[in-house]
Specification:
Layout (H helix, E strand, L loop, with lengths): L1 E6 L2 E5 L4 E5 H5 L4 H4 L10 E5 L3 E4 L4 E4 L9 H6 L8 H7 L9 E3 L5 H4 L3 E3 L5 E3 L5 E5 H8 L23 E4 L2 E5 L2 E5 L8 E7 L2 E5 L22 H17 L3 E3 L8 E4 L5 E5 L5
Parallel strand pairs: 6-7, 7-10, 10-11, 15-16
Antiparallel strand pairs: 1-2, 2-5, 3-4, 5-6, 8-9, 12-13, 13-14, 14-15, 16-17, 17-18
C-alpha cells in the first residue's frame, strides 16, 4: 500500500491488487527491445514486472476505487501463466485504513480485462462468491459492458464471466455513455483504443488536476504515443488518444497516475516525456 499523495482535497492511496509479470514484447508492441529496455527493466525470460494497484480516492464526501486488481479467484494454472508474484490483498489494506468493503461508495472500471475487474467479485472463505463492494455503484461504459456480455474471439480470453455474473442486472451497475461526473471532481471520459468501450478518469480539486489513462499509458515508459501494447484492440485509436491526452494534460501540468507501474505510481512529464517530478510513496 502506498499513501500520502494529495491533490487538493483528494487523498490517493494505492492498494495491493496483486503483482505479476507480462511479456515485454507484448507490452511494447512493435517497439524494438533495444529501445524499450533502456526505459523499463526486463528479466532473462523477457518478462517485465507489473502491478495491479487499485486506486482509492478519499474525497470529502465519498470513497472511490478505480480498478479492482487481480482478485482472489485465480486458479493455480492462471497464477502460473500470468507469473503472479504477489496475490490480491486489497481488503487487508482497507482494514488497515479502518475501511470496510461496505464503505466503498463508487467503483470505476476503465475496462473489464481480468487484471482490472478481477476484484469486482470475490471468493468468500466459505467458497461462495459475492460482490466485493456490495454498496458501491460500478461505473462502466455501455459499449464496454455490451462487449463484456458478448465477447469476441479475442476478448473472450480476458472478459471472464466469473467477474461479471454477480454484477449483471443489479442496481450496483451504472452504465455510462461518453463523459460523466461520478462524484464532484472525478469524471470518466470514453476514449476507446485499448478496448472499444475504454474510458479514462480525470480528477480535479482545489485547482490541481490528474489524469488516469491506465492501459493507454500503462507505465511511465509508454509516454511515446507510438509505443502501444500488442494487447490494444484498436492501436491507431490508442495512438490518437494518447496524443490528445498528453496535449491536454501536459498543458494543465497535471499528474499522470498509473495502475501497472511499480516504479512510478504518479508523475509529471515535460513535453518530451521526461519525468520532471515523481511521487513514489512508501510501503505501509
Amino acid at each position: 500500500m502506498r499513501r500520502g499523495f494529495f491533490i487538493g482535497d483528494f487523498e490517493f492511496i494505492w492498494l495491493n491488487g496483486g503483482m505479476f509479470a507480462l511479456d515485454g514484447g507484448a507490452m511494447f508492441g512493435v517497439v524494438p527491445k533495444a529501445l524499450w529496455a533502456r526505459k523499463y527493466p526486463v528479466d532473462e525470460d523477457n518478462t517485465i514486472p507489473m502491478v495491479a494497484w487499485p486506486l482509492l480516492i478519499k474525497t470529502p464526501e465519498s470513497l472511490v476505487i478505480i480498478e479492482t486488481g487481480l482478485g482472489n479467484k485465480l486458479t493455480d494454472k492462471q497464477k502460473k501463466i500470468f507469473r503472479v508474484k504477489e496475490e490480491w490483498n486489497l481488503l487487508a489494506d482497507l482494514r488497515d485504513l479502518g475501511i470496510a468493503r461496505e464503505d466503498i461508495s463508487h467503483v470505476i472500471l476503465t475496462h473489464y480485462d481480468f487484471d482490472h475487474a478481477g476484484g469486482v467479485v470475490m471468493r468468500e472463505e466459505s467458497g461462495s462468491f459475492c460482490l466485493t463492494f456490495p454498496r458501491a455503484k460500478h461505473y462502466i461504459q455501455t459499449t464496454e459492458w455490451e462487449d463484456v456480455l458478448r465477447p469476441n474471439i479475442r476478448s473472450i480470453n480476458t472478459y471472464w464471466p466469473i467477474n461479471n455474473e454477480l454484477l449483471k442486472g443489479t442496481p450496483n451497475l451504472e452504465l455510462v455513455n461518453g463523459e460523466s461526473e461520478v462524484v464532484k471532481g472525478i469524471r470518466v471520459i470514453h476514449t476507446g483504443g485499448h478496448t472499444k468501450g475504454y474510458q479514462i478518469v480525470t480528477m480535479e480539486s482545489q485547482g490541481q488536476s490528474a489524469v488516469y489513462p491506465c492501459d493507454l499509458l500503462p507505465t511511465h515508459a509508454h509516454f511515446n504515443p507510438l509505443w502501444v501494447m500488442a494487447y490494444d484492440n484498436f492501436p491507431l485509436d490508442s495512438i490518437q488518444q494518447k496524443e490528445d491526452i498528453e496535449r491536454v494534460y501536459l498543458a494543465q501540468e497535471a499528474w499522470f497516475i498509473f495502475y501497472h507501474d511499480p516504479f512510478v505510481p504518479a508523475c509529471k512529464f515535460d513535453l518530451q516525456g521526461n519525468i520532471v517530478i515523481k511521487w513514489t510513496g512508501e510501503h505501509a
